[in-house]
Amino acid sequence: MTSLDSTSQPVPELPDAGGTPPKQIPPAAVARLTLYLRALNTLLAEGVERVSSESLAEASGVSSSTLRKDLSHVGSYGTRGVGYEVQYLSRHIAAALGLTHDWKVAIVGAGNLGKALARYGGFESRGFDVVAIFDADQMVVGSEVGWLRVSDVADLETVLHRTGANMVVLALPAAVAQGVCDRVVAAGVRSVLSFAPVMLQVPEGVNLRKVDMATELQILAYHAQRAQTPGQPA
């Protein structure tokens, strides 16, 4: 089973132009690469052409040494005294993260969370195209969420194949999440993001990432409590 919790990331592989096997990037570095990419895209929008490692590190909330080490996994493209070319580094990190591929996302569950995800405008700008949304409630099926029409989950496999969806988000109750996940995997999808409050089982070769907001709040509460205790680092 390949299962990834909310503190880990799928590890992309960076193609090597010389034909050697692609190298894996450590999960913690993958998480930070997404921060660098966000900062770089902000700089691009502001018309900035070059950035120093110190400035990029500060914008990403990491140290300069950490940033340089992370970027070494995708090749170092900085020039001493000149910095990094923003557009080039942005494109290269995007390629390392797999964002140059055509990612089509289907959302299963058209409740409040599923609808909010379907309407979120940030996915498209980051390379993710939401192509379908499903629900089992016949009062919801056929309604519109943004530009999408809610499909019947009974037609899950047909719609997944028709839309070419290669990522699925599960915004479902715990009781039905495993069954739907099994159907998604059987339909050929190998990347699943689950918001369901239950541990799902998937076969080897399927990347499952779980987001548990209650757990994240509990972790946040722990750190907040330590911050309020004299002499205890957060």
UniProtKB/TrEMBL annotation:
Q: Which residues bind DNA?
A: 35-74
Grouped into one coarse class, the protein's main location is cytoplasm
Full protein name: Redox-sensing transcriptional repressor Rex
Regions of biased composition (Polar residues) lie at 1-10
* Pfam families (alphabetical): CoA_binding, Put_DNA-bind_N
Oligomer status and interactors = Homodimer.
**Where on this chain does NAD(+) bind?**
109-114
Species of origin: Pseudarthrobacter enclensis
The UniProt annotation puts the region (Disordered) at 1-24
